Amino acid sequence: MADASPTVARRTLARVLRQRREQAKFTAAKAARYAGMHAATLSKVESATTRIQPGTAQALMRYYGGTEAECDAVFDLAHAARQRGWWQTHKAMPDWFDAYVGLETESRLLRDYQVELIHGLLQTDQYAFHLARSAVDVTSDEEAKAHVALRMARQERLTAENPVELHTIMNEAALYREVGGPEVMRSQLKHLRERCELPNVSCQILPFSAGEHAAGYGSFLIMSFPQSPHEAITFAEVVYVEYGLGALYLEDGSDVSHFTKIFNDLSSRALSVDKSLKLIERALQERST
Fold first, then answer.
1. CATH number of 90-288
2. CB 214 within 8 A of CB 265
3. Residue closest to 172 by CA, chosen among 259, 286, 262, 248
4. CB-based contact 166:202 (threshold 8 Å)
5. What DSSP designation does 284 have?
6. Helix 68-81 with 54-63: angle, nearest 10 deg
7. Which fold would CATH assign to domain 6-81?
């Protein structure tokens, strides 16, 4: 469990403790009294907004009737959740984005739909800079560069020893939305073509000709994680939906199933990987003439 990112560990611990308490039919107030904490504190633990001492997490699991394997697992999770993530040294990162980077760091598979922008892990530094500079809350070039530095660091997952698998579906509009001017876009499309040829990257383009589809409301991302080293614990998939001032993290099984169906439908409507590469090449050629 030591390899789990603090974010994955904290969110998994919150889910496991909440589920076992509810299965044991204990109120949060009763469980909190047993652990010697306020009910509000336990509520924050169960919503993954605060951390808990490993010994206290283990004691609660025993109180809920958990097995020795479950007690060992929550102890390890609570310990991992107290570590500091590499990304937390980046000062430019908004608080609400901390959870996303922690989850992305631990993911084994990312399934993503982008409405009109190139996926963040496939962007060049100049493309990313102009996007960051266009944000209403980024007030200087230095701040934008700090955002870019974090994005470039995140991209290292694509070429790491155990790289994340990325399956991205981008609307055709992403190839034509001009960010930073013609030269930046030419460089971006060349980079996209190269990145989409990585063995762990599958890139599909949803062409304009596909017509109506089930994701007309916007972009989303489904994150899947490696198998937990503890048989008693599973890392649940998470759906990430970003909006202007924050993001939603959907972990309920029905929500994940709903978005998985949408993603699969988009994938069936999108061009194949080979045809998508040809469309990227065509868009690049159009900008080179």
1. 3.30.870
2. yes
3. 286
4. yes
5. H
6. 150
7. 434 Repressor (Amino-terminal Domain) (1.10.260)
Q: CA–CA separation, 140 vs 266, rounded Å?
A: 37
Instruction: Please name the helix (run of DSSP H) or strand (run of DSSP E) that holds residue 234, with its range, or none.
Output: none
**Short-list 223, 143, 209, CA closest to 172:** 209
pLDDT at 146 over 50: yes
Q: Give the span between the Cα atoms of 234 and 252, in whole angstroms.
A: 14
| Domain edges within the chain | 6-81, 90-288
User: How far from chain centre, in Å, is Cα 204?
Assistant: 19
> How many Å is the maximal CA-CA distance in the chain?
72
Cβ proximity of 81 and 9 under 8 Å: yes
pLDDT tens readout for residues 52-107: 998 999 999 899 998 888 888 888 888 877 776 655 555 666 666 777 787 888 88
